[in-house]
Amino acid sequence: MTWRIISALVENKPGVLFRVSNMFRARGFNIESLSVGPTEEQDLSRITITINSDEHTTEQLVKQLRKIIDVVDVIRLPLDNSVYRELALIKLKAEDPTTRLEITNLVNVFRGKVVDISKRSMMVEITGTPDKIDAFKALVEHYGIIQLARTGVCALPRGVVHE
Amino acid sequence: MVEISGAKALVQALEREGVEAIFGMPGGANLPIYDELYSSSIRHILVRHEQSAAHMADGYARIKRKAGVCFATSGPGATNLVTGIATAYMDSSPIIAVTGQVPRAMIGKDAFQECDIVGICASITKYCFQPMHPREVPEVVKKAFYIAESGRPGPVLIDVPKDVQQESAEMVFPEIVKVRGYSPHIEPDVAQVSRAIDLLLNAERPIIMAGGGVHISGAFAELQALAEMLMIPVVTTFKGKGVFPENHPLSLGPIGMHGHAEANKLVTEADLLFAIGSRFSDRSVGRFDEFGRDMKIVHIDIDPAEIGKNKQADVGIVGDVKVSLRIMLKMLASRMIRKGEGEWESNQWLRHVREVREYYRSIIKDHPREVTAMKALKKLRELLPADAIVTTEVGQCQMWTSLHFDVISPGTFFSSTGLGTMGFGFPASIGAKVARPDVPVVDIAGDGSFNMTENSLAVSVLENIPVIVFLLNNYSLGMVAQWQRLFYNRRMIGVDLKGMPDFVKVAEAYGAQGIRAESMDELDKAIRRALSSDVATVIDIPIDPEENVFPFMPPGKGLKDTIVAA
Ligand SMILES: Cc1ncc(C[n+]2csc(CCOP(=O)(O)OP(=O)(O)O)c2C)c(N)n1
Ligand SMILES: [Mg+2]
Question: d(Cα B22, Cα B11) in Å, to the nearest integer?
């Protein structure tokens, strides 16, 4: 079992995401993360999926994805030849100045940002590979995570064109 | 350019596709379409339940090898289609289901007879369209047929909001359409075909497993040529039953849960399995972990996702079965390879195949009674012309057909093999008869299944589509009863049908012919009368409720665990 990224170009129209996610459910594929957004072409969206599975299951998932009529293209993105990023917003308990300072220092080490401060909490933004976000999360967990949101991975192959 | 309504465009587009018949039922949300049918040349066949409309379209499609069309209104009309659509999906049959939908502004408001049929059908269709503007209609219809019929065929839904049917627009009817994410025509990789040939030629104990893909692509002649050229015995899946003449010396018949004993045995002894247009379903191969462990596998399928889904192949060929087999035959011809009848003596594997087959055929035991399922089916085969079309309901009746009714003319048999839908056979036989009015069409039925869709007798009689219902009547849900007898210690519950109703009277009530056959002599006469009748005939054949189907591969077991007889 390893971590893999699959990138699918799909028609940008209603119901497509439903068909894709419904296929995962119906065929029992377990998805780690899924992100959708527009692409360089107006009528296409890109769905980026990460899964933790073996080669055989990944290949089956790619084939089943290709079968969906609104899926225009599917590629696998090798981890060592792709750029992949995720963004996380984490709201932490931070009531006293020492805690705030500590958190701010950690955020700086991770090249993140403090994006909101209230009396009792701070919200920080971290971007990077899922590993990096996991690492940051582990470091700040003990302050108390009030809320956390992650975007899921967004990825592109390195170089000019893929495949 | 003149403007026409969405409904008119829909009917015109169907006419352009060459649609001859539509099976359907009207309602509030598809009335504008029906109003256009009024002045169309397309024949409308009014059903008594939308499930049957979908099965009729399916039966039509399987015989015509072109999409069948069914209509239903929104809400309950559409949901009634669902079983029929799922049945077609599981058996890769091209049907186009056109449903009415509430007007656009009402969608999502829980309007009267609103139902999210597009959502419901997502996992049982190849694609769903919901045109939101009348001008989309012609292209949607064209694409629907293209998607349904090409590649691995399957059902397509077109859900048309009522106001899209009513509103007018300037229409362009495209001659060809392209669907960006869909490229069904994959040329088989010649190098793979060549590797497959090497494996075939080097195998000591090769066997062909022919599936439904042979039927769908109409590759009967190619399959037979290949089997004869290389003298390879042929088993089929149940869906593939009859793609190879079952009276051919190389034919071993269907494998699987109720496969022929010799087929189940020999397929596990082979050292090379050539799977042609088959999806390695659990019903056919039993346990995925056990099946094919010690053999090489060559697999042709048009659907790339089937290669390696249930079973890893040593050589996978993605492509149309007919095209792929033709390439293979050409390559074999150029290598001057042609084996002959002499192989039956000189080839050890074929000698073994013949022995095993003779042995299992000699030990087939029939149930002790004058009329049994086996004798009735053999009689039917004897009297039915080879080109007659046969379908079945689901249950013991279906499995007895698999075992005891030989399909001689390829492509004349089909059944609900994937979903196993009771009530499929009768309406599907009506659809098949619409596709081929010139040949007799028979539904080999069980009483429980026939009871589910018997109201299609009204359609058969009033629309003058005479078919034959060959009812193996055991007054019970026999297949379930068999499981209760064998696996639940005879704790019989929910299986007794107590001879209700009297099917002869049911037939007569609908204006059809009903005949009870209680002896072989009566059965002989009944079949002859049915074949010369111009109304539908129900032949009610009482058999023993205790008669079991054997051989039987118990659920969850492998082919080698097949129980040959009680
Ligand atoms: C729609 C549907 N409901 C339930 C079943 C489960 N089932 C499979 S076979 C069978 C009994 C069929 O009875 P009958 O048509 O009389 O055939 P027999 O087995 O008696 O020959 C049942 C209930 C099914 N396959 N389809
Ligand atoms: Mg019965």
Answer: 11
ipTM of the complex: 0.87
User: If you measure CA to CA, which chain B residue comes closest to A66?
Assistant: B181
Residue A83 to residue A62: CA distance in whole angstroms: 20
**pLDDT tens digit sequence for B114-163:** 999 999 999 999 999 999 999 999 999 999 999 999 999 999 999 999 99
Tell me whether strands A2-11 and A71-77 are parallel, antiparallel or unpaired. antiparallel
Q: Which residues of B26-64 are buried (b: 16+ CB within 10 A; e: fewer)?
A: bbebbbbbbbbbeebeeebbebbbbbbbbbbbbbbbbbb
Instruction: Give the number of C-alpha atoms closer than 13 A to the C-alpha of residue B4, restricted to the C-beta side.
Output: 18
Whole-prediction pTM: 0.95
Burial category of A106 from C-beta neighbours within 10 Å (exposed 0-12, middle 13-18, buried 19 and up): middle
User: The domain at A83-155 falls in which architecture?
Assistant: 2-Layer Sandwich (3.30)
**CB distance B181–A10 less than 8 Å?**
yes
Per the structure block, which two tokens stand in for A53?
Answer: 């599975």
Distance of alpha carbon B548 from alpha carbon B481, whole angstroms: 9
Please state the rounded mean pLDDT for residues A140-151. 97
State mean pLDDT over A113-142.
96
pLDDT for the residue B67? 98
What's the length of chain B? Answer: 566
Distance CA B26, CA A49 (A): 43
| pLDDT value of position B368 | 87
Nearest CB to A26; choose among B123, B127, B179: B123
Which atom of ligand 1 is closest in space to residue B398's alpha carbon? 21
Distance CA B196, CA B202 (A): 10
Structure tokens at B11: 């009917």
| Nearest CB to A15; choose among B118, B123, B309 | B118
Residue-range domain boundaries for chain A = 2-77, 83-155
- CA-to-CA separations, B20 to B23, B85, B271, B456, in angstroms, rounded: 10, 20, 47, 19
Nearest to B244 by CA among B262, B224, B267: B224
B8 token code pair: 């008119």
- In the reported structure, the alpha carbon of residue B512 is separated from the centroid of ligand 2 by a whole-number distance in angstroms of 21
A2-77 and A83-155 share one CATH topology?
A: yes
Residues in chain B with pLDDT values less than 50: none
Using the Cβ of A28 and the Cβ atoms of chain B, whether some distance falls under 8 Å is answered with no
CB neighbour list of residue B442: distance below 8 Å, 6 or more residues apart: B380, B384, B388, B389, B390, B391, B429, B467, B468, B469, B470
Give the number of the atom of ligand 1 that is nearest the alpha carbon of residue B472: 21
Distance CA B253, CA B261 (A): 9
Question: What span, in angstroms and rounded, lies between the C-alpha atoms of B371 and B391?
Answer: 21
Q: Is A76 helix (H, G, I), strand (E, B) or coil?
A: strand
B284: β partners: none
The B127-129 sheet, strands edge to edge: B43-46, B21-24, B68-72, B95-101, B156-161, B127-129
Query: How many beta-carbon pairs under 8 angstroms link A with B?
Result: 41
Q: Which domains does chain B have, with CATH numbers?
A: 3-170 (3.40.50.970), 190-362 (3.40.50.1220), 373-549 (3.40.50.970)
**Average pLDDT, stretch A55-71?**
94
**Site from B117, B120, B180 to mutate, A interface, most A CB atoms within 10 angstroms:** B180
Residue positions counted in chain A: 163
Q: Given CB atoms, is A10 within the 8 Å cutoff of chain B?
A: yes
| CATH fold for the domain made of A2-77 | Alpha-Beta Plaits (3.30.70)
The three-state DSSP-derived secondary structure of B257-302 is: CCCCHHHHHHHHHCCEEEEECCCCCHHHHCCCCCCCCCCEEEEEEC
What residues are paired with B444 via a beta bridge? B392, B470
Query: Is residue A163 pLDDT above 80, yes or no?
Result: no
Contact assignment for A23 to B147 by CB distance below 8 Å: no
